[in-house]
Amino acid sequence: MTTAVPDQARSRSLPRVVAASLIGTTIEWYDYFLYGTAAALVFGKVFFPNSDPLTGTLLSFLTYAIGFAARPLGALVFGHFGDRVGRKRLLVVSLLLMGGATTLIGCLPTYSSVGVTAPVLLTLLRLVQGFALGGEWGGAVLLVSEHGDARRRGFWASWPQGGAPAGNLLAAGVLSLLTGIQSEATFLAWGWRVPFLLSAVLVGVGLWIRLAVDESPLFKEALARAAARGKAEQPPLVGVLRHHWREVLVAMGARMAENISYYVMTTFVLAYAVSHVHFPKQTALNAVLIASAVQFALIPVFGALSDRVGRKPVYLVGAVGVGVWAFVFFGMVDTGSFGSLVLAVTVGLVFHSAMYAPQAAFFSELFATRMRYSGASIGAQFASVAAGAPAPLIATALLKDYGSSTPISVYVAIAAAITVLAVLCGRETRGHDLAEDPAEVTGARPAEDGAEPGAAAVGKAATA
């Protein structure tokens, strides 16, 4: 038998784990969002120069969407091994894969040099990025969630979520700087490569920090129990699909509005503002920069709020808010005013933060320790194929077909309705005990709707 990890020891290591997860996740999201930003502003001209501007953007977003196709595979592979050998090792692998692919994108020949080979190579490297990110998110948020205690888990687990706006802030900031100091011709010739090559330096920093943190104490405890039992365990994927399929569906539904609204309001808006409203590139990037900075500050606030009032109420406010705001959003962008553009994106990301901040704790609390990496990753990344992957592509196609932003707003509102329904169908997880029953490792389903012991009392008291 093993003893529980002392709370005092876990609390001492928690700030270091949070910092490592935040910095590592920021670097990975920087790599990923850099591609999306470049797809909106650069890749159409560099890799698809023979198409008209809107079609070139459409083709660029198609390669962008393809990267999402690899995210479920990354979730399955990283989830399996993350539940078997640990969170930390897989996070190191994901960082190396993402950074390597991003650096190589900066070295690619263009269409004018090698023809169709250029976009093919671009697509292959995008697939590697997607595979890496499919494993990154689950490991980063679980490492923090499993180090922290139930009372403030929403707050601490929200910090790795801050890596998304921080990465977007960094990506948009570097591109904004380059477009500001370089001519259009110079930027298209070689300037766009600099942010991608910079990834090699950032990955070195991220690895140095990640290698210094400890493995999840809950995972080590569960692994020791499994070893003492000496019985063969079922694959984590089997356990998730057998005992937690409802939770997977809740997580997938909860991701729809969060994922779609984010990519419409941060990635597609760049192409829309520049091509449709005729904002300068740097002006559009600056708007996303300001909004991302606000979001970074708000994510831990909403995470802490979810510790007080529950994961579901905060999440629902964000979902309803983003569904309504979608109809205001494009009208403000269409005014051509920089202030209106900043306000439109910022308010959109405020509502997004209300969903994204509690998401880490919410998804972590849905699954047992030895299948938590798999369950959280599958729920999050399989949804991304239907949500974030085609969002800029669908938005661009709707704009091209209808010449109006209204269908795009309807698209976001439908996603919001799906998320509201999914969250209402889920159980409230605030206060959930992440310690598991050894019986769950062998596949026996606990009596209380798949919840781990220690959480049974919470499950009875919590409202749906």
Describe this structure in words.
- This protein is mostly helical and 464 residues long.
- Helix content is 80%, strand content 0%.
- It has 22 helices and no strands.
- It has helices at residues 7-41, 43-47, 53-69, 71-85, 87-105, 111-114, 117-145, 153-161, 163-181, 184-191, 193-210, 217-229, 236-243, 245-276, 281-309, 311-334, 338-364, 369-386, 391-402, 406-425, 438-441, 456-461.
- The longest helix is centred in the first third of the chain and has 35 residues, at 7-41.
- The chain starts with 6 loop residues before the first helix and ends with a helix.
- Mean pLDDT is 84; it is low at 1-5 and 437-464.
Give a quick rundown of the structure.
It is built from 22 helices and no strands.
Q: Care to count the β-strands?
A: 0
Number of helices: 22
Hey, roughly how much beta strand do the residues contain? under 5%
Rg from Cα:
21 Å
Low-confidence stretches: 1-5, 437-464
Largest sheet: none
Instruction: Give the termini separation.
Output: 34 Å
Shape: globular
Structural class of the helices, strands and pairings? mainly alpha
What is the residue-averaged pLDDT? 84
As a percent range, the share of helical residues equals over 70%
Note the run of SSEs as H and E. HHHHHHHHHHHHHHHHHHHHHH
Question: Which descriptors would you attach to this protein?
Answer:
single chain, 464 residues, mainly alpha, 22 helices, globular, disordered N terminus, disordered C terminus
